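Thread: quick sanity check before group meeting

JM: Hey all, I'm pulling together slides for Thursday and realized we never actually wrote out the predicted structure for the chain we discussed last week. Dropping the sequence here so it's in one place. If anyone has concerns about the input, flag it before I start.
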Amino acid sequence: MSIRDFDLLSDRIRLHYQADKRPVIIVEGPSDERMLQRALGEEFSLFSATGRSAAISESKALSAFEKINFRCVVDRDFDYEILRLQQEGFPVHPYENADLEAMLAVSRVAIDLINELGSSEKIATHGGAEAVIARLREEVRPVTLLRRANVENQWGIVFDEVDLAAKIDKRTVTLKTQSYCAALDRTSDSSPGQKTLLQFASGEISVANEPSCPKGSIPYFRGRDFLSFLSVALTSYCGTRRSHAVGSESLESQLRLAGDSFFRTSAWLEELSQSLGASPS
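JM (edit): ok, ran it. Output follows.
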C-alpha cells in the first residue's frame, strides 16, 4: 500500500476550498477536465477522479463533510445510478446522451469530422455526410440494446474485453452481430448465451426500459461505440484512411477538439454554470 492510497480527492478539495472559494467541478478524468477547462476558463476549480464511480463516491464524501458549492459531472451510461442521484437532489450534472462523446457525436461535430477525414467522393456515393452518420447510428443500436439488457439482467458481460471494431464489416460498415454476441458471451459465466444475446440485439426480445436522455438527445448510444463504427467507416466505406490513423482513441481526441466551439455555446454548459452561480467566460 502506497501513500497514494490515502490521497482522497474529497480531502484535497476540502483543503483547496479553504483558500479558493471558486465553485468546484468534479469530473471523471483528465480529458474531461481539459475540455471543461478550455470551455469555462478560470471561474471554476476542476478536479479529476479516476472514473465515474470514483467521481460519484468522492462527491458523496465531499457533500457529507461540509457545504461546498460543487457539481459532479459524469456520464449517464446505461444504468440507473444517475437517475437515482438526481431524484435524491444530489449535485450531479450528467452529460447529455450516454456520455460526452455521444453528446458531441449527435451534434454537427461528427458530420464535420467525417467531412474532414473522409473521402468526398465516397461520402457523396453514400448520400452525403448526414446519410453516413445516420447509417452509423443505425448500426450502433444493437450494441446499445445489449448494454442496456446487460444492466437490466445483471449478466456481468465485460464489453471492453471485446474489440468492437474487429466485429464490424469494413466494406458495408455493418455489425457482425452473431460473431459479436459470441464474443460477448465468453466474457461472463452469467451470460444467458449467444442465442439470447442475438435476440436482444435484434430487438426480438425487448429491454424493459429503452435507454434515453431526459434532455432529448437522440439516438442514445455510447460515444466510443459510435467511434468504433466511424473508425472502420473511414478506412473503406467513406474514406481511405489506414486503420491506425483513425483508431477510436484518436477519433475521440479529435472529436473533443472539434467540438470545442459547440461545447462552449451549448445549453448544457450554460445550465452547469448557472447551477453553480456563474456564467461561462
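AS: nice. Residues 1-6 have pLDDT under 50 and may be disordered. DSSP finds 14 helices and three strands in the chain.
JM: adding both to the slides.
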